[in-house]
Design goal:
Belongs to the ABC transporter superfamily. This is Cobalt/nickel transport system ATP-binding protein. By secondary structure, the protein is of the alpha/beta class. The protein has one domain: Rossmann fold. It has seven helices and eleven strands. Helix 6 links the parallel strand 7 and strand 8. Helix 3 crosses helix 4, helix 3 runs parallel beside helix 5 and helix 4 packs across helix 5. It starts with a strand and ends in an 11-residue tail after the last strand.
Length: about 240
Amino acid sequence: MNPLLELTGLTVLRDGRPVLSGVDLTLRPGERVALVGPNGAGKTTLLRAIIGLEPAAAGRIRLFGEECATEPAFRKFRPRIGFLFQDSDDQLFCPTVVEDVAFGPLNLGLGAAEAERQAIATLEELGIGHLAQRVTHRLSGGEKRLVCLAGLLAMKPDVMMLDEPTNGVDDEHGRQLRQALLDCPAALLLVSHDSQFVGGLATRAMIIRQGRLLRAEIHDHPHVHQHFHIHLAHDARGGAEDN
Ligand SMILES: Nc1ncnc2c1ncn2[C@@H]1O[C@H](COP(=O)(O)OP(=O)(O)OP(=O)(O)O)[C@@H](O)[C@H]1O
């Protein structure tokens, strides 16, 4: 199947210093790829670069088969990519929850009643239907996170890029979120330090180390609870053949 996203030799600088160096990554339909790595490794930078929010110093970015290097080129494809920002307050802007979640579907051309119906169905799928009429900026941190995710799911994007989706989210809502993402046909690029969430969702994992993207393995070891650990694959070297 043709890739949805394709990065070749992507290098991104921050303050003149390479944060990402020669990154190769391909995301195909049906894939759910976890991006892991320590704080400051460049995970958020990578997601932002993919949709043109950070300039590439070198390399190529292809979205849905088309090379993107300019703002108009990226803008054309952003509606097909749902991006969950690390900070929920950067994402929420409508007065009420239901208006916020319906905003995306409305923007994509749905009528008001259908957009609202879709918004409420998505809120219920995530177990937060009761929040529909609440004032967005008065929600708790975890509630805001889930409302942002509902907004993305309601848009039915082809790709979702999620930066720390379970931040502040309790276990039960985390399970509902994971199920919603498993049921959703969008391919996923997932940045998370929550290894249990990643283990139950990702089809493969990549780790960012010193600016390089390397293949990682997800192992699950059944204990009293199930734990998931991510280890570097033995044969991970450069990324080019590992993406
Ligand atoms: N606006 C900025 N200007 C300059 N440097 C930045 C900026 N934002 C991030 N950086 C630096 O770029 C590097 C990568 O940051 P990034 O946010 O991509 O890391 P991350 O892997 O997502 O980290 P975390 O797990 O803590 O969220 C870090 O060294 C960070 O300090």
